[in-house]
Structure formats: structure tokens, C-alpha cells
Design a protein that fits this description.
Layout: E1 15-16, E2 35-37, E3 56-62, H1 63-80, E4 83-89, H2 91-104, E5 110-113, H3 123-128, H4 146-152, E6 153-154, E7 157-158, E8 161-173, H5 174-180, H6 188-200, E9 204-206, H7 215-230, H8 236-241, H9 251-265, H10 278-287, E10 290-296, H11 300-305, E11 314-317, E12 330-339, H12 346-356, H13 359-369, E13 372-373, E14 381-382, H14 390-394, E15 398-400, H15 409-423, H16 429-440
Parallel strand pairs: 2-4, 3-4, 3-5, 9-10, 12-15
Antiparallel strand pairs: 1-14, 5-12, 6-7, 8-10, 8-11, 8-12, 8-13
Helix pairs in contact: 1-12, 1-13, 7-9, 15-16
Length: about 450
């Protein structure tokens, strides 16, 4: 059946997963039951307690983690006698500030860390450097799935607790698809056919905003690489670390960027995308000026705000990268908490993680954000809007973001910065991959 002639589509109907991810803007919550959200940077202070089951635990969280943990603060304090002093900020600011706090000895007892080696405050980097407490003996460590463990562990030791998992999806406008009789594409060829049908209707096929940095460029890279590279070769990261291959030498990386630019060259992306904001790209999808867009799950609530009918105006799919529909993988990302190796109240911090690991609390946290539970404890989250991607999750057809096991964050930053030049035809794919290889070769700080 042609992907552009059928009226059929996934109909949201049961449980779902994701939505968290990096967010923007501080969340302000009133203090209650030991919950304090201050603006002092989350230092440990003098009230952290002795670690004997009472006192205070200081926490430095992302705004999303703050939202997820809010309904659990009072129950945790009632159960443990430990109060929480929480500071929350947006992830981009947090990564910078946490590095300063760790070097100055003012970091909180517990804080968010990035997965793998994806930034200078990632689990792999800080765990290797002795900045994080070894949590391997915690009971919940056995409930970490293998994909997440690769990003939380260093040399067989667990340094990070996964509070949730997030994902990358392609959202589409239901009214536009209904009007044109389009079916959600499940292969690359079908995606190109749907894009052409949208273009022929006078619409932008895929709304794409790259102003203010190429944040959304990386989403396409991770989606395409997940299916084209890591699906066929899950050992790719190990091979790159061993020097057996590289961005330049591995043909799949060239294919990833070639397919990304194919969407640009066929006119399927927003015209002048380098000057279009991500917010405008979402508005274009909501108004029907565009048919599809790729975004992180954290962007779905913002997308819904642009439509009078909210989530009902959209559905989602796992963006295909090849012509075997069964081979499509969906990138997912864990969201981590870690305990400061120099925590003033390490026992209280451990108690918090043990509390968050209880199945009922995993469900409460995940439900607050509509995210995929971080631990494999049988928790379920009700969010029917995300039903279409559940078959991939249930079948284990997920893959980590490609950058998480790169040895340092500069590889990603080079991809983002030089990726804009690539999009503008100022450099070639070979130029970009050579630059990424140079940063990769510097290793882990």
C-alpha cells in the first residue's frame, strides 16, 4: 500500500513513555515538607546533617527533575526523616555551574549528571575522575538495563541513578495528513514520498529551525546513526575507541550526513532554516504550514501549546532511516542523578535514591513528566499520546544517542558548530568528519 494514499494511522489508546529531556526556564516551587528551592547554587552548607538517617540532603537538579520529584518530597521526608534542599536550573546553565561547584568544593550532595562521556559533567567523566560516589552496592543497580548501564558505569562500577529515559520522535500534524490522505512513513523511501506529497501541497515537509545553534541538527544525526550505524554494529563505539575506525573511515557516518543533506537538497526542510528558530518551526507544524518535525520529547508539551486542540492535533512516529521498517531504532536517553563523592550527607543521598527506586515512586516520577521509567522495575506510565512508539520500546528497538560514548563533549560541540557550516555549504561532509575525528582523538579530559 502506498504510504501517501492510506487514511490509516496509529490511534493513541494505551500506556506510554518519555517526554522529559533538557528544558528551559527555572521552575519555582513553594517550600513545603523539607522542599526548599533556593537560588544559592546548591552548595552543601552547614545543615546537611551527619548522614545517620536524618538531617538535610542538598540537591542540584534540572527543572524537569524538580518537577518529577516534587510529589515525592513530602513522602520521602516522612519516611526517612531527611529533608531536601533543592536548587533547580535549566540543563545548559547547570552543566557550566556544576563544574565550577565541583572544583570549588561547593557542589550539592546529589546532582544531575550527563550520560556517558557527553559533557565535562557526565557520569563517565566524573566517575573516572573520582568526583562521584560508587553506588554499585545499591539494590536498584541490578535493575539498570544494559543500554543504560553503558552510560552509568565506569570499569564495572555504577556511578549514576537513572530517574527516567527520554527519546527523539518525529511529530506530524494529523489534520494535514488526513487532508492529503497520508500514512505515517515507516521506511526512508516512504518518508521521501510523504515529504514530496507535502511539498506538492504547498507546505514545508519538515519544519526545521537552526537559529541560535544547531541543536536540532544533532537530533537527525542521532536518529539516522542509530539505525544506520549502531543497529548493524552495536560495537561501533568500542571500535572507535580502539582506533579501528573513525568518523572519516566509517562509511556509515558519511551516509548519515548525506541523508540529512538530502532532505535539505530536495527542499523538504524549512526554507532558510539557519534563520528560523525552533519555536517558529513548531508553530509552523501546529498551524499546518508544515507537515512534520523532529524534536526531543521535552519539546512535545511546547508543541501542544501552539494548537487550540493540544495533543489531539498531533501524532508521533519513529523516524525511519532505511528501507527495512523492522530495523528502525529509536534513540533514547537516560536522565541521571549521582552522589557527590564529597557529600556532606552521603547516607541521606543514598536513601533518596533507594526511595526513588521503589516501583510506586518510579511510576509517580515518570507520570509527573510522562517519561519512560529509568529502572526496569515494571513501572508503567499512562500517556496515550505516545502510543505509536510503544511497539519499538516493548521490542527493545531503542538505541542511545550517538554522542554519549564519545570521549569528550567537544566532539559534539564541533558537530554542532561546524554542522551549521555544513548546512550552509561552507564545508563538506569530509571536512566535518575530519574535524570531529580531531576532537575525538583528544580523548577524555
Amino acid at each position: 500500500m502506498s504510504p501517501i494514499t492510506s487514511q490509516s494511522r496509529f490511534t493513541p489508546s494505551r500506556r506510554a513513555l518519555l517526554l522529559g529531556g533538557a528544558g528551559f526556564g527555572a521552575l519555582t516551587l513553594a517550600a513545603c515538607g523539607g522542599f526548599v528551592n533556593d537560588d544559592d547554587g546548591g552548595g552543601s552548607g552547614d545543615e546537611s546533617g551527619s548522614g545517620d538517617g536524618g538531617g538535610t540532603v542538598t540537591a542540584y537538579l534540572s527543572t524537569e527533575q524538580n518537577t518529577g520529584i516534587e510529589p515525592l518530597v513530602e513522602p520521602f521526608t516522612a519516611d526517612s526523616g531527611v529533608e531536601l534542599d533543592i536548587t533547580s536550573v535549566a540543563v545548559p546553565d547547570m552543566n557550566q555551574q556544576l563544574a565550577v561547584q565541583l572544583s570549588s568544593g561547593t557542589a550539592a550532595d546529589i546532582f544531575r549528571v550527563s550520560p556517558g562521556y557527553s559533557s565535562n559533567v557526565a557520569a563517565g567523566v566524573l566517575g573516572s575522575g573520582g568526583d562521584l560516589l560508587d553506588l554499585s552496592d545499591a539494590a536498584w543497580a541490578a535493575s539498570i538495563d544494559d543500554g543504560t548501564r553503558a552510560l552509568s558505569d565506569v570499569d564495572g562500577k555504577t556511578f549514576a541513578f537513572p530517574v527516567a529515559r527520554n527519546s527523539l520522535v518525529m511529530a506530524y500534524n494529523l489534520a494535514v495528513f488526513d487532508e492529503l490522505g497520508l500514512e505515517p512513513p515507516t521506511t526512508w523511501t516512504e518518508l521521501l514520498e510523504v515529504c514530496q506529497a507535502l511539498t506538492d501541497s504547498g507546505r514545508t515537509a519538515i519544519s526545521h529551525g537552526l537559529s541560535g545553534g544547531a541543536i536540532y541538527l544533532q537530533f537527525y544525526v542521532y536518529i539516522l546513526a542509530g539505525t544506520l550505524l549502531y543497529g548493524p554494529n552495536p560495537d561501533l563505539d568500542a571500535q572507535m575507541r580502539a582506533g579501528e575506525t573513525s568518523f572519516t573511515d566509517e562509511p556509515g557516518w558519511t551516509e548519515v550526513f548525506t541523508k540529512y543533506l538530502e532532505l535539505r537538497d530536495k527542499g523538504y526542510f524549512t526554507d532558510g532554516a539557519l534563520g528560523v528558530s525552533p519555536d517558529q518551526a513548531m508553530q509552523d507544524l501546529a498551524t499546518g504550514a508544515a507537515g512534520m518535525t523532529v524534536l526531543s520529547n521535552s519539546g512535545l508539551p511546547a508543541l501542544y501549546e501552539y494548537s487550540e486542540t493540544g495533543a489531539e492535533a498531533f501524532s508521533i512516529l519513529a523516524m525511519p532511516a532505511g528501507d527495512d521498517a523492522d530495523a528502525t531504532l529509536m534513540p533514547t536517553a537516560p536522565d541521571f542523578l549521582a552522589v557527590n563523592a564529597a557529600a556532606a550527607n552521603p547516607d541521606g543521598a543514598r536513601a533518596l535514591l533507594e526511595f526513588l527506586a521503589e516501583p510506586a515512586n518510579v511510576e509517580t516520577y515518570a507520570s509527573a513528566l510522562a517519561v519512560l521509567p529509568g529502572l526496569d522495575v515494571g513501572a508503567q506510565v499512562d500517556n496515550p499520546a505516545l502510543e505509536p512508539v510503544l511497539p519499538l520500546v516493548d521490542a527493545g528497538r531503542t538505541v542511545s544517542y550517538a554522542n554519549y560514548l564519545w570521549p569528550n563533549g567537544d566532539v559534539q560541540q564541533t558537530m554542532l558548530q561546524s554542522g551549521q557550516q555544513l548546512y550552509a555549504d561552507e564545508i563538506t561532509i569530509a571536512d566535518l568528519l575530519t574535524q570531529m575525528d580531531a576532537e575525538y582523538a583528544k580523548g577524555t579530559p
